[in-house]
Here is the input.
Amino acid sequence: MSKESRMRATVNQKLTEMGERERLKELLRAKLTECGWKDQMKAHCKEVIKEKGLEHVTVEDLVLEITPKGRALVPDSVKKELLHRIRAFLAQHAT
Amino acid sequence: MSPAGCSHVNGYKVDNWKQNLRVIYQCFVWSGTAETRRRKAKSCICHMCGAHLNRLHSCLYCVFFGCFTKKHIHEHAKNKRHNLAIDLLYGGIYCFVCQDYIYDKDMEQIAKEEQRKAWKLQGRAFCFLTENLIQLLKQGHLLSQCRHICVPFVSTGIGEKYTTWEPTKRELELLRHNPKRRKITTNCTIGLRGLINLGNTCFMNCIVQALTHTPLLRDFFLSDRHKCEMQSNSCLVCEMSQLFQEFYSGHRSPHIPFRLLHLVWTHARHLAGYEQQDAHEFLIAALDVLHRHCKGDTINDNGKKANNPNHCNCIIDQIFTGGLQSDVTCQVCHGVSTTIDPFWDISLDLPGSSTPFWPLSPGGDGSTVNGESHLSGSTTLTDCLRRFTRPEHLGSSAKIKCGGCHSYQESTKQLTMKKLPIVACFHLKRFEHSAKLRRKITTYVSFPLELDMTPFMASSKESRMNGQYQQTVDVLNNDNKYSLFAVVNHQGTLESGHYTSFIRQHKDQWFKCDDAIITKASIKDVLDSEGYLLFYHKQFLEYE
Here is the structure.
């Protein structure tokens, strides 16, 4: 494993252990709902389902179709805020 | 994908499968306790590449974690013929034969229960640790030390998770038996209903109209949130609940509130009798009784009177209680002694009363913020509020004991808003009951449709004192913006008069409620009226 991925794993471990990961997930969920991202994604999902047909569409289809759009549409302010929270948390719990 | 699931799960549903599945949910998907979180942090990595991202899945048949995106779990499934895996992020069950996520009713039920359990546990962890904190404080540890310790133990603070409503069997039955549905359009007048006057009860009728049109209160009662703990039939909150049912039933005939009147007489003896009472007094008495009844018994288990609004979280307090800050400044040492008192309404003195009023000239700071009309120098609500929050010299006959000087000194007192309630009620003191005279002050006070309370906040006063004199109107700060939604008016004299009210139905639709008669009103009618009780609602509500 590269140094970067090892660091990622350590950070993730710390976040999970202290329950911060859950909190961040909920914060993200709230922020993305507030800014309308969730509704945009929902609408896109509906389009994909219409295209592929309700009987044949799989979760995989949806994931592949909406992931790139989803990643692109996250507002910068949300990214900033999450990053800030993570940094603050790590600063507090630096070993 | 059919909700019956796929047939491939049948191979899994043997022996102690339910318990095994629960363990997987508790340990690796929704870890509620610190211990399971630690285990999850350590062990939830892909057995093939060590990554923790990439949609990690766990095999249901053996202990194997693999990435979904990199197909590591797919390889495992193929090699070992283990056809089921669980998504560690969302708890979904994947079937490799069907090549899609499946929805098995039994498994879904287990998933829901485990998720709820984990949420509850996260909340409890906080309670346990505050107990610790209390112990520390009792042992006399310094507060700063405690703060240091409590930081890593702050609760997950997520609260109750939102789940979509799924009707129970009984609810489905009720829905089928009652097929009539009510559609709310922008012009519908549901919620509007007249009230019969039972003998000078217009004071009560107006307050009822205002309360039934308070959005948060309406939502509370229409979603059946009151759980009655009173044994007798005299719970006022239950009666309010009934009242809302009557108002929103769609009946257009006026309602006869005799039960409400009887309950009010029972619980607020000073309002009993058929004389005309003061609508403001009724409002306060009603809020008080509702607040008491919201907690079931009036005496809590400590034997203490559970009357302190500071420690209550009932719906009345959530909506109506604000905090009024009183700062007493010693004129000698300039030390400030601050107290914060709860309030349900703000009583404002008017010009023309025996207490001197200092009308402030139009164009002064803040008067343009609320866009009130200054017809020929008339007083505005903002003027009254400015007077309410001005520093007042207490005079040499009312010296206060100063903690800094340790002696009685002259001081100034100033009131500001520490915490604003969601619904702010302004009471214009039109009825003068001084020793010399009893009269009604009919001075016209103009009030706005939209009100910004920022200049009257304790925080604004602090920044003014720190030298930031120019209060830049922060258009983005929506915390202190209020909208008018109800006005109670009194016509006539102190001896004989009549109460009517204006209430707002939709954004710009106003109606006049004169006991049993409801008529459409224009915004001009509302703003030109004298005004006795003004009800304002916060424009933007924040999350807790």
About this structure: Residues 28 and 61 of chain A are 24 Å apart (CA to CA). Chain A has five helices and no strands. The longest helix of chain A spans residues 76-92. The radius of gyration of chain A is 17 Å.
